[in-house]
Write the structure tokens for this entry.
Amino acid sequence: MATETPAPDHAGRIRHQLRTSILAGAVLLIVLLAVISAIVNAASLNQYWFLHFPLGFYFLAQGVLIFVVVVGFWFVRTQEHIDHTRSETRELE
């Protein structure tokens, strides 16, 4: 039983995997930079207060978490768009 895909589909699959990998890498980089910047700037942000908490503490306890959840939802929406585009082009072939 042969499991190899036809040549035109192979190029489309590689393009889909590349777009998905770039998106995942970009999301990880954005989250990592957000966490690092919150850690680096926490001491200087602690002079300001938000909801009776130092701002640096609040960013590290809640703000980064909220940001990661929002970025996660954005990632899923963008990945679904990439998958939808791939399925449409696959039907045309």
About this structure: The helical segments are 7-45, 55-92.
